[in-house]
Structures are given as structure tokens and as C-alpha cells.
Design a protein that fits this description.
Elements (H helix, E strand, L loop, with lengths): L9 E4 L18 H13 L5 E2 L8 H10 L8 E5 L1 E3 L5 E3 L3 H15 L4 E6 L8 H14 L2 E7 L3 H8 L6 E5 L6 H4 L2 H8 L3 E4 L32 H18 L3 H9 L5 E5 L4 H4 L11 H8 L4
């Protein structure tokens, strides 16, 4: 199971939809009914996939996805994750042992209301467990039919090579945007292209900092975005990047969101995860993206990282 190469290249990300104040990711208040409607709108807009995880609100996002997809005519593939565990004090830690991964998959199946998960990604590296052991475990789950395919999230090239020696990788996911080009420098994008593995860019809008009209001032005082480097140490870079994106958007009569998504998906095999929080924001999943030419890319590249 993988993403359809003929699809729009855009999927819905559900981390903000699972936002709870007592959870690991607090994006400010998120109305549940609006969240469910957002998932439904994403499916209706033809989202290539929906990306979720138990980590997002400790199960809340997966339950929202279940409710949002109930009764939809065409159900997009749902990608979830495993390995991130909740401590007694509410913090998180990684446990990618075979028993923990199997338990995660069973709980995700229950929350999502499905017999078989389309794709399960190991959420983050677990230095305590060799990747070969974790990957052999998810291959067993695939062979048993509990999952359709397995992916890796936030893993290095070395770990991806070691996993691939054990079994196939359906997708690879990393943070990637005009404000974070780490996958270019670390060889992640080259690795995916070489091995024909779809690359999923999470936070292609840099948590909203590249979205039209983004303003940090109205955000909840404890909103995680207030602590991101784009609002603190890299605030000047953020403003210069926003200016470049705005200029390219004006040239195409497009939105900044569309330009940022077009940039992230400009090569074959690259997909972007849009963290929409309302049906209106999810509409971007069905809107055409501008084709960026050499002048556009040159303008965007003028902002050094």
C-alpha cells in the first residue's frame, strides 16, 4: 500500500485536529465537530491520503478521522503511526519494540474502526531498539494482514537503509518546507528518489508561518507555535521567506499556501501533508497548484538558510 502517483500530491495532516491542552501538541482550541467536518471535506476534495497518529491528542485525532470518514463515498488511504508512547505524567517516549508496535497497531485499528490499517509508520527512531528488530515486527504485521504497508517517519538515511534490507518501505516522512530544508542536506530526498519511495513532507507551511495572513498575536499563550524558531531565533528569516512566497503568489494570482505546497511537491514522488483545521482550509486539497518556473524557484532560493 502506498500513495497513488496520479493523485494531487496533497494529503490531510491531523496533528492540529487532535490538539488537546493536556496532550503533547497544543495548537490552541480545536472544536471537535469542526475537526470531523474537516476530515470529511478533505475526503470530498480528493485528498491523496490522511495522515494521523496516536500521538496526536493521544488517540483523539484517530477517532476524529474515523468519524469524519464514516459514510464517505470515496475513502482516502489513512496513514497512522506507532512507537510513540505516553508516560504516566503525560509526556512521551519512544518504544519501537515488537510488542509495543503490535499493541499500537491493535489500538489504532480500534480507534479508526478498521480491520486493516492502510499504512503504519514508525513515528520516531527508538535508540534502544535496533531498527532491524522493529522493521521485522511491522513486516510480520503486514504479512498477517493487520497493515497494508509500513513507513518511516523522521528516520535517517542509515536507518532507512537498514530497514530496507529487512523489508520494503511504503513511505518516508520528514519535516520539509521553505523554512526547513533538512531533507535536502541530509540526503533524505535523494534516497527516496533513488529507491522509488514516496516522500511525505510534514509541515510544508512551517506550522502556518507560510500561510496567508498568518499572525502569531491572536494565538493562545501556550500555543506551541509561539515557541518555534520561526517565531523566535529565526523570525527575520521567516519574514524574508514570507515576502518571497508572497511575491511569487502574486505573480501567479495564487495564495501563499498554494505556492508553498507547489514548492514542496515540485518533484515527482513528493507529497505534502496539509494541516487544515476547518473545511475552508481543507479546500486547498482540491485546488490546483501553480507550476513554479525557474524565475519562481530562483526568487524563493534567494532566501538563504
Amino acid at each position: 500500500m502506498t500513495v497513488d502517483p496520479t493523485s494531487s500530491g496533497l494529503g490531510l495532516g491531523t496533528a492540529p485536529l487532535g490538539s488537546i491542552e493536556t496532550g503533547p501538541l497544543w495548537w490552541g482550541p480545536q472544536d471537535r465537530a469542526t475537526a470531523v467536518a474537516t476530515v470529511r471535506a478533505a475526503a470530498e476534495m480528493g485528498a491523496a491520503f490522511i495522515d494521523t497518529a496516536p500521538f496526536y491528542g493521544w488517540g483523539r485525532a484517530e477517532e476524529i478521522v474515523r468519524d469524519g470518514l464514516t459514510g464517505v463515498a470515496v475513502r482516502p488511504p489513512v496513514f497512522t503511526k506507532c512507537g510513540s508512547q505516553r508516560s504516566a505524567d503525560g509526556t512521551s517516549y519512544e518504544d519501537a519494540s515488537p510488542s509495543a508496535l503490535r499493541s499500537d497497531v491493535e489500538r489504532s485499528r480500534e480507534r479508526l474502526g478498521v480491520e486493516r490499517l492502510d499504512v503504519v509508520q514508525v513515528h520516531d527512531p527508538d535508540p534502544k531498539v535496533p531498527i532491524e528488530e522493529s522493521w521485522a515486527a511491522v513486516m510480520v504485521l503486514r504479512d498477517e494482514g493487520s497493515i497494508g504497508g509500513a513507513g518511516l517517519s523522521n528516520h535517517s538515511v542509515e536507518l532507512m537503509d537498514r530497514a530496507l534490507a529487512v523489508g520494503p518501505i511504503a513511505v518516508v516522512q520528514h519535516q520539509y518546507s521553505l523554512l526547513d530544508r533538512t531533507p535536502e542536506r541530509d540526503g533524505i530526498l535523494d534516497w527516496c528518489a533513488e529507491h522509488g519511495v514516496p516522500f511525505l513532507a510534514w509541515s510544508p507551511l512551517a506550522s502556518g508561518f507560510l500561510a496567508d495572513g498568518f499572525d502569531i498575536d491572536p494565538l493562545h499563550p501556550d500555543d506551541l507555535r509561539r515557541r518555534l524558531r520561526w517565531a523566535t531565533t529565526d523570525a527575520d528569516l521567516t519574514m524574508r521567506t514570507r515576502t518571497a512566497v508572497s511575491e511569487v503568489a502574486a505573480r501567479h494570482g495564487a495564495t501563499m499556501v498554494a505556492v508553498a505546497l507547489a514548492w514542496a511537491t515540485r518533484r515527482p514522488g513528493r507529497y505534502a501533508i496539509l494541516g487544515a483545521r476547518s473545511p475552508d482550509e481543507a479546500a486547498a486539497l482540491g485546488s490546483p497548484l501553480p507550476t513554479l518556473d525557474g524565475d519562481d524557484l530562483a526568487r524563493l532560493a534567494q532566501v538563504p538558510l
